[in-house]
Fold this protein.
Amino acid sequence: MGHKHIILVMQDIDLSGKINAVLLEEEFQVDIVKEANQVQILNLKNYDLMIIDAFIGDSSGFKIAKSIKENSEYSKLPIVFVTSKSTENERLTGFAVGAEDYIVYPFSFKELTARIKAVLKRFSNKNEISNQIIKYNELELNLLKFKVALDNHEVSLTKREFELLKLFLSNINKVFSREEILDMIWYDDELIQKRTIDVNINRLRNKIGRYGSKITTIAGYGYCFEQ
């Protein structure tokens, strides 16, 4: 968990100082922001997690969190509320605007770091899973389960058809010669003929419905999945 970059949005100097000290001991990088308007000018893509007070001067941490979650660039940034003021309604509001956790002060700093690490781990796992999904509109390839879905309905593909579709969807608009396809998909079969590629691609086209026409034949060269 070391070297994760955290932004701490908090006006309470004493509490932010204590949290900062604990996080530094855990080898996190921490930037402290004391004013709500400063958050708006930062590139939040540089951070792995935001810790924010529900109440920042005259502003609202809830409002800041909501605007972040509604911004497509930053919506995946995990947010943890840490505050000394809390009612049931405030906690519910925190989760409603997209917070991953809501921690009420006073608390054990060991508990704080444990909960922050848990949030970071959850998001790390989510990212790993999302990297195993290749999606083109309503056509989805799950590399983890070796499954393909079209309009949320599973499509049955052979191993070679699956590998062909993975190759095309991972390289949209790139043209592959038959020789390249042979090397990448039929690398373990020296007796395969180029005609077999054409047969498998035609079968794949038929199985992926309206997206089959996206796999185009480039005369004299090979195939391409066109945008």
User: Anything to note?
Assistant: The chain has eight helices and 14 strands.
